[in-house]
Write a structure and sequence with these properties.
The protein is an all-alpha fold. The protein contains four helices and no strands.
């Protein structure tokens, strides 16, 4: 059910042919609250978790996450900079690819 409210005095009232008035600010707030309370599932939930970890992390943790994910081809995501700084995910410490896949250099055709 739509809420029909008077326009607050601090906001301009726009001309309309509609006889009922809506408080669009209140509707906006309600939609934002619904989106905020919405629970993601599957891959969205996992991505949101990683975003939260990244946002709350210190500089070394962010550096570790970026380097481990990018240099491993997306197969490793570590938050430990001490471990990531010492490993060579592009060379000798490269993880094994998932079953049925193989490593290929994208620069070679």
């Amino acid at each position: 059910k739509e809420q029909i409210l008077e326009t607050p005095p601090d906001q301009p009232e726009y001309p309309t042919s509609n006889k009922s008035k809506r408080n669009w600010s209140q509707i906006d707030r309600e939609i934002e609250e619904e989106l905020k309370n919405e629970k993601p599932d599957g891959d969205q939930a996992l991505n949101k978790l990683f975003q939260q970890i990244y946002e709350r992390a210190d500089e070394d943790t962010r550096r570790a996450m970026n380097k481990s994910f990018q240099t491993s081809g997306g197969t490793v995501l570590s938050t430990n900079w001490g471990e990531v700084a010492a490993n060579d995910y592009e060379g000798k410490d490269r993880p094994t690819p998932p079953d049925g896949q193989e490593w290929r250099d994208w620069r070679k055709k």
